[in-house]
Each structure stands twice: as C-alpha cells, then as structure tokens.
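Q: Hi! Curious about what Flavoprotein looks like structurally. Here's the sequence.
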Amino acid sequence: MTAQAAGPGKPFLYVVVCAAGVASGVTELIAAAQERDWEVGVLATPLALGFFDTAAVEARTGRVIRSAWRLPGEPRPFPPPDAVAVAPATFNTLNKWAAGISDTLALGTLNEAYGLGVPIGVLPCVGEALAAHPAYAASLRRLRGMGVRFADPYGATGGTDRPVFGWEGVLDLLPQPPGRGSTGRSG
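A: Let's find out. The predicted structure is below.
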C-alpha cells in the first residue's frame, strides 16, 4: 500500500490507537470521520496492532498503519495533521504523554502535535482501579492544561444496559472540516 495525498480541500485527521480491547471497533471511528469529510491516517502503539483488524483499517483508509519511525530519507506517508483523535487512550499512553515521553511513534506524534498547536481530542479507556492512581489525575490535569480535550467514552449505552464506547465523541471535540462549519486547520 502506498501513501496517498489528502483529497483536494480535505483536512487530515490522525487517529492514534492504543492497546485496549475496544480498539477492535476503531473502524467505527474511521467511518464516522470519513462521513464528516476527514481524510484519515492511523498511528498505533506497537502493542495496539494486535488489538484490531489492521487489514480492514488499511482498506478503509487506503493507507498503511504507522507504528514505527520512518528511516531517514523515507517519504512521509501522511500529510501534516489538521487534528488528532486518540481513541482508545490507555493509562500508559496518557501518563507517558503528560510526562513528555516519546518512546513510540504514537507518543512522539502526540508530543509534536501539541507543540505545533494541532487540536487533539481524547477518549480514555482506563479502568477504575488505574484511574484511581494519583499519577493519572495529575496527567489529566497536565494534558487539559495543554489544551487537550477529553470526552466521556461511555456516555451512551446504545439502548442496552451495557456501556458502549462512543467513538464519535472524540470527533465532537475537534474543529469540523471545511464545509461543515469550520475554517479548516487551526493552531
């Protein structure tokens, strides 16, 4: 699969996927983003690659999934992002990101996106026991202070008593693509 340029006038969304069971549904987020006129490229933490159907994601986006740094001289497979959606975002990734650690492509991209002023929305996927850890609360405060926006991923039940991971919630945190009430790239 080769890199593609974003469609004419279409903003580019990076979707960062972390290793959580709900990651198997990431195609729902990609489809919703495409319906809102985003071009989409997926970056995954190395462990996340085993949590979703990579072939289905690549078929849906028409792009390779990035999880490793490119070598010097290799072309950039994605254009610069107009926005970033992190879903699902795990305890590990959120804490490392808040600390400025860039030991994976996904974390390096998140740290750089902040420095470039790119809008970032997050759907955390953190269990109650880990969410109780003081480092997590401190990381959320720091990230919010950096302008990162968070949504409740389990705000809807989908007509059942079981919570449903609300993929589209992260898109609601981001500027809308041109033609849908936005002026385009912000930051």
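A: A fun detail: The chain has a mean pLDDT of 89.
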